[in-house]
Amino acid sequence: MSAVDALKPSYELAVIGAGPAGMAAAVAAAQRGVATILFDEQASPGGQIYRGVTTTPLRRRELLGDDYWHGQGLVDALLGCAADYAPRSIVWAVTRIGDGFELAVSRDGVAHLVRVAHLIVATGAQERPFPIPGWTLPGVMTVGAAQILLKTAGLVPGDGTVVAGSGPLLSLVLAQFAAAGVSVDAVLDTTPRDRRWRAAWRDVIGFATSPYLAKGVALLRRARAAGRVVRGVESLEAIGDHRIERVRYRAGGQTIELACTSLLLHQGVVPNINFANAIGCEQRWDEVQACFVPVVDAWGASSVPGVTLAGDGAGIAGARAAEAHGRIAALNAACAIGRIDPAQRDAAGAAAQADRARWLRGRRFLDVMYRPAPQYRIPVGDTVVCRCEEVTARQVLESVRLGCTGPNQMKSFLRCGMGPCQGRFCGLTVSELIAKERGSTPAEIGHYRLRFPIKPITLGELASLPQTEASEQAVVRLPK
User: Fold this and answer.
1) What are the CA-CA distances from residue 333 to residues 36, 43, 317, 336 (Å)?
2) According to the model, what pLDDT value does residue 470 have?
């Protein structure tokens, strides 16, 4: 069905996030007869990869590519199934109630309580922090943000734009810029030169037999048309008084400055783990992807009973793998709820498992090849680490020398991770900084422990929650 006007007091399953994994999960669960609702913060479905697929002003398919328009089929399936779809809805707290959960959801500024038996968390990926000197200056933004402007408003970079970083998304956006007739002043490739093949050669066979090889070659060819490429960039700095005016970089033994009006940064994506973290899902440090990822089994089941994770929020694998993972997670939820038994789940999930395995083939090659260099992950000096609280790398290291042992204690020292983003943009950086200073590893240091509310809410939203005995009785408990 289309977006619901009112939320029911209870469902069997709630899916968080309307990207490829979330949409696929909601459709698959509804097909199994599971009473399902899909919550999403955006006004229309698609997630980040298919952002604006139903509303974009860009109707020429070649501008954004066939992979983008694949999302239209997922949206059509979602809007045509029996699951309820709740856009503009932020799930900001989860409480265990018996064998199920109570969700605190804000929709259009009003908070609601919804009971569910099972949760599928499909919060997707976010761009990795890129903490270089000057990255907080006006005029500096991420490549992903520029892509959102292109998809949703048809806006493209103007004259004086420099793009810097590495990774498949950077090449994709450059190819989209080139298709739109946009050129940038320079593309500063920060991929370490010895990383390109030396570290990844063992995984090249898997990549060569994957769906990514032909796509990647064509993408790189189109991306070259977007601007002059400078390879082997070893250092990077944004310079300006009140906004960016120049970018300084070092490559080939020379330090060069370019005048610019905007700088677009990107060095890969990492799982958006904040929601799963706050629920209490166990996480591990992935050395290849250089980030924390939730621990899940083959069906996406997390360490928290009743919580299944799907898509890039459970580990970066790409949109098509996320879509298959969403179907897998839905079958796991249907089994946990009792709609199907484990044998039926296994039989029904075989095709989705095979599809996901196909799209996972070759991912390790990409992860190894585009793993960001340490100097772009672990800043020094007065480079800002926590944008919300304006905390620098120097301050973090000084706190460690004063006895701070980890990121959670760092909150007491410097308030890192306590701003509006709740550590999404500084968590990885803080953990790696502490680990380096202590001669330890991020796995030993750990990540922030997050608490609900997971997103900023207003006093008005809190006040709108059910407060009276009558309102509590109006919330229907699901049968066990």
Assistant:
1) 11, 26, 21, 5
2) 41
DSSP 185-219: SEEEE-S-GGGTTTTTGGGHHHHHTSTHHHHHHHH
Span 260-313, pLDDT tens digits: 999 999 999 999 999 999 999 999 999 999 999 999 999 999 999 999 999 999
Domains of the chain listed by start with CATH number: 10-126+270-340 (3.50.50.60), 129-267 (3.50.50.60), 378-474 (1.10.10.1100)
Distance between CA atoms of residues 367 and 130, nearest Å: 17
pLDDT, one tens digit per residue, over 207-242 is 888 888 888 888 888 888 898 999 999 999 999 999
Q: Find where tokens 């790398």 sit.
A: 393
Give the DSSP per-residue string, 220-264. HHHHGGGS-EE--EEEEEEE-SSS--EEEEEETTEEEEEE-SEEE
pLDDT at 436 over 60: yes
pTM (predicted TM-score): 0.94
Please check whether residue 166 is in contact with residue 267, taking contact to mean a CB–CB distance below 8 angstroms.
yes
- Chain-centroid distance of CA 84 in Å reads 24
Computed on alpha carbons and rounded to an integer, the radius of gyration of the chain in Å comes to 22
Would you say 29 and 15 are in contact if contact means Cβ atoms under 8 Å apart?
Answer: yes
SS3 67: helix
